[in-house]
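REQUEST ID: PR-0412
SUBMITTED BY: lab tech R.K.
PRIORITY: routine
TASK: structure prediction, single protein chain
INPUT:
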Amino acid sequence: MRLQFKVELLLHHTELAPVWRRFLIPADWLFEELSDVIQVCMGWEFEHLWVFSNAAAESTEHIVEEEDADDYEGKTSLAYEVQLQDKFQQKGDTYFYSYDLEHEWTHRITLEEVVQDAVDNAELLDGTGACPPEDIGGEDMYAALVQTAAQPDFPDAYNFREILGLEPGQSMDLTIFDMATARERLANLNHLYHTYDETELEEDEDI
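STATUS: complete
OUTPUT:
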Protein backbone atom coordinates (compact mmCIF):
# COMPACT_ATOMS: atom_id res chain seq x y z
CA MET A 1 0.00 0.00 0.00
CA ARG A 2 1.24 3.47 -0.87
CA LEU A 3 0.12 6.95 0.16
CA GLN A 4 -0.26 9.77 -2.34
CA PHE A 5 0.80 13.10 -0.89
CA LYS A 6 0.79 16.67 -2.09
CA VAL A 7 3.56 18.67 -0.43
CA GLU A 8 3.28 22.46 -0.73
CA LEU A 9 5.93 24.96 0.31
CA LEU A 10 4.03 27.70 2.15
CA LEU A 11 5.07 31.03 0.59
CA HIS A 12 3.62 34.41 1.42
CA HIS A 13 5.05 36.60 -1.35
CA THR A 14 2.52 36.92 -4.18
CA GLU A 15 5.42 37.46 -6.60
CA LEU A 16 6.62 33.90 -6.06
CA ALA A 17 5.30 30.98 -8.10
CA PRO A 18 3.67 28.12 -6.17
CA VAL A 19 6.06 25.32 -5.23
CA TRP A 20 4.55 21.87 -4.71
CA ARG A 21 5.18 18.18 -5.38
CA ARG A 22 2.91 15.15 -5.64
CA PHE A 23 4.35 11.72 -4.94
CA LEU A 24 3.58 8.18 -3.84
CA ILE A 25 5.40 6.61 -0.89
CA PRO A 26 4.93 3.22 0.82
CA ALA A 27 2.64 3.51 3.84
CA ASP A 28 5.01 1.52 6.05
CA TRP A 29 7.94 3.85 5.45
CA LEU A 30 9.05 6.03 8.34
CA PHE A 31 8.81 9.79 8.81
CA GLU A 32 12.61 9.84 8.57
CA GLU A 33 12.28 8.42 5.05
CA LEU A 34 9.49 10.89 4.24
CA SER A 35 11.92 13.68 5.08
CA ASP A 36 14.43 12.20 2.61
CA VAL A 37 11.79 11.98 -0.12
CA ILE A 38 10.69 15.58 0.46
CA GLN A 39 14.31 16.71 0.31
CA VAL A 40 15.04 15.08 -3.07
CA CYS A 41 11.66 15.87 -4.66
CA MET A 42 11.62 19.51 -3.57
CA GLY A 43 15.30 20.12 -4.35
CA TRP A 44 16.73 20.65 -0.88
CA GLU A 45 20.24 19.44 -0.08
CA PHE A 46 20.04 17.83 3.40
CA GLU A 47 22.00 20.69 4.97
CA HIS A 48 19.78 21.69 7.91
CA LEU A 49 17.66 20.30 10.73
CA TRP A 50 13.98 19.56 10.19
CA VAL A 51 10.86 18.71 12.18
CA PHE A 52 7.34 17.42 11.45
CA SER A 53 4.43 18.89 13.41
CA ASN A 54 0.67 18.60 13.55
CA ALA A 55 0.09 22.33 12.95
CA ALA A 56 1.85 25.18 11.16
CA ALA A 57 1.83 27.15 14.44
CA GLU A 58 1.27 26.26 18.10
CA SER A 59 1.85 22.57 17.43
CA THR A 60 1.09 20.06 20.16
CA GLU A 61 2.89 17.14 18.55
CA HIS A 62 6.30 16.90 16.90
CA ILE A 63 8.16 14.15 15.07
CA VAL A 64 11.84 14.97 15.18
CA GLU A 65 15.39 13.94 14.49
CA GLU A 66 17.12 12.30 17.42
CA GLU A 67 19.54 15.17 18.05
CA ASP A 68 16.81 17.75 18.77
CA ALA A 69 14.31 15.50 20.55
CA ASP A 70 14.42 17.57 23.75
CA ASP A 71 13.81 20.94 22.11
CA TYR A 72 10.01 20.78 21.88
CA GLU A 73 7.10 20.90 24.29
CA GLY A 74 4.15 18.56 24.03
CA LYS A 75 4.21 15.06 22.59
CA THR A 76 7.48 14.27 20.82
CA SER A 77 8.31 11.16 18.77
CA LEU A 78 11.43 10.14 16.88
CA ALA A 79 11.15 10.12 13.09
CA TYR A 80 12.85 6.74 12.75
CA GLU A 81 10.22 5.11 14.97
CA VAL A 82 6.94 6.37 13.44
CA GLN A 83 5.44 4.90 10.29
CA LEU A 84 3.51 7.12 7.89
CA GLN A 85 0.38 4.97 8.18
CA ASP A 86 0.31 5.70 11.92
CA LYS A 87 -0.47 9.37 11.25
CA PHE A 88 -1.97 9.38 7.75
CA GLN A 89 -5.06 7.19 7.59
CA GLN A 90 -7.70 8.99 5.53
CA LYS A 91 -7.89 11.57 2.76
CA GLY A 92 -7.23 15.08 3.93
CA ASP A 93 -4.99 14.14 6.87
CA THR A 94 -2.37 16.88 7.15
CA TYR A 95 1.01 17.33 8.74
CA PHE A 96 3.65 20.04 8.40
CA TYR A 97 7.37 19.77 7.67
CA SER A 98 9.72 22.60 8.63
CA TYR A 99 13.22 22.65 7.16
CA ASP A 100 16.13 24.95 8.04
CA LEU A 101 14.73 25.95 11.39
CA GLU A 102 16.46 29.33 11.37
CA HIS A 103 14.42 30.44 8.36
CA GLU A 104 11.42 28.09 8.77
CA TRP A 105 10.70 26.80 5.28
CA THR A 106 7.33 25.22 6.10
CA HIS A 107 5.66 22.59 3.91
CA ARG A 108 2.07 21.39 4.18
CA ILE A 109 1.74 17.61 3.61
CA THR A 110 -1.75 16.47 2.62
CA LEU A 111 -2.82 12.86 2.08
CA GLU A 112 -4.72 12.75 -1.24
CA GLU A 113 -5.18 9.03 -1.84
CA VAL A 114 -4.49 5.61 -0.36
CA VAL A 115 -3.32 3.38 -3.22
CA GLN A 116 -3.63 -0.39 -2.82
CA ASP A 117 -0.51 -1.66 -4.55
CA ALA A 118 2.56 -3.67 -3.59
CA VAL A 119 5.22 -1.29 -4.91
CA ASP A 120 8.03 -0.62 -2.43
CA ASN A 121 9.36 2.57 -4.01
CA ALA A 122 8.60 6.26 -3.76
CA GLU A 123 7.43 7.78 -7.05
CA LEU A 124 7.29 11.44 -8.07
CA LEU A 125 4.09 12.12 -10.02
CA ASP A 126 3.93 15.86 -10.58
CA GLY A 127 5.10 19.21 -9.36
CA THR A 128 5.65 22.84 -10.16
CA GLY A 129 7.93 25.64 -9.03
CA ALA A 130 11.62 25.50 -8.20
CA CYS A 131 12.83 25.04 -4.65
CA PRO A 132 14.60 28.07 -3.10
CA PRO A 133 18.39 27.79 -2.97
CA GLU A 134 19.89 26.59 0.28
CA ASP A 135 20.98 29.38 2.64
CA ILE A 136 19.36 32.14 0.59
CA GLY A 137 18.36 33.78 3.87
CA GLY A 138 14.61 33.26 3.95
CA GLU A 139 11.60 34.13 1.84
CA ASP A 140 12.27 37.87 1.48
CA MET A 141 15.74 37.22 0.08
CA TYR A 142 14.40 34.48 -2.19
CA ALA A 143 11.72 36.82 -3.56
CA ALA A 144 14.37 39.46 -4.23
CA LEU A 145 16.56 36.88 -6.00
CA VAL A 146 13.71 35.71 -8.25
CA GLN A 147 12.60 39.23 -9.13
CA THR A 148 16.13 40.47 -9.75
CA ALA A 149 16.85 37.56 -12.10
CA ALA A 150 13.55 37.91 -13.99
CA GLN A 151 13.48 41.71 -14.29
CA PRO A 152 16.68 43.39 -15.55
CA ASP A 153 15.52 46.77 -14.19
CA PHE A 154 14.66 45.45 -10.71
CA PRO A 155 16.81 47.11 -7.99
CA ASP A 156 19.73 44.74 -7.38
CA ALA A 157 20.55 45.52 -3.76
CA TYR A 158 22.40 42.24 -3.18
CA ASN A 159 24.41 41.98 -6.42
CA PHE A 160 22.39 38.93 -7.41
CA ARG A 161 22.84 39.62 -11.14
CA GLU A 162 26.60 39.49 -10.79
CA ILE A 163 26.39 36.32 -8.69
CA LEU A 164 24.15 34.70 -11.33
CA GLY A 165 26.44 35.85 -14.16
CA LEU A 166 23.72 37.84 -15.91
CA GLU A 167 24.69 40.38 -18.55
CA PRO A 168 22.94 43.78 -18.76
CA GLY A 169 19.40 43.27 -20.04
CA GLN A 170 19.59 39.50 -19.62
CA SER A 171 16.96 37.70 -17.54
CA MET A 172 16.59 34.26 -15.96
CA ASP A 173 13.56 32.36 -14.67
CA LEU A 174 14.54 30.76 -11.36
CA THR A 175 11.09 29.28 -10.72
CA ILE A 176 11.19 26.40 -13.24
CA PHE A 177 10.91 22.93 -11.72
CA ASP A 178 13.33 20.35 -13.19
CA MET A 179 11.19 17.21 -13.02
CA ALA A 180 13.82 14.99 -14.68
CA THR A 181 16.49 15.84 -12.11
CA ALA A 182 14.07 15.34 -9.21
CA ARG A 183 13.04 11.92 -10.53
CA GLU A 184 16.68 10.94 -10.97
CA ARG A 185 17.44 11.95 -7.38
CA LEU A 186 14.45 9.95 -6.15
CA ALA A 187 15.52 6.90 -8.16
CA ASN A 188 18.94 7.10 -6.50
CA LEU A 189 17.28 7.34 -3.10
CA ASN A 190 15.10 4.30 -3.80
CA HIS A 191 18.20 2.37 -4.88
CA LEU A 192 20.02 3.42 -1.71
CA TYR A 193 17.13 2.20 0.46
CA HIS A 194 17.01 -1.18 -1.28
CA THR A 195 20.78 -1.57 -1.06
CA TYR A 196 20.60 -0.74 2.63
CA ASP A 197 17.78 -3.24 3.20
CA GLU A 198 19.71 -6.02 1.42
CA THR A 199 22.78 -5.27 3.52
CA GLU A 200 20.71 -5.44 6.70
CA LEU A 201 19.23 -8.76 5.57
CA GLU A 202 22.69 -10.23 4.93
CA GLU A 203 23.84 -9.09 8.35
CA ASP A 204 20.78 -10.68 9.97
CA GLU A 205 21.48 -13.99 8.20
CA ASP A 206 25.04 -13.98 9.53
CA ILE A 207 23.91 -13.67 13.15
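NOTES: The radius of gyration is 19 Å.
REVIEWED BY: pending
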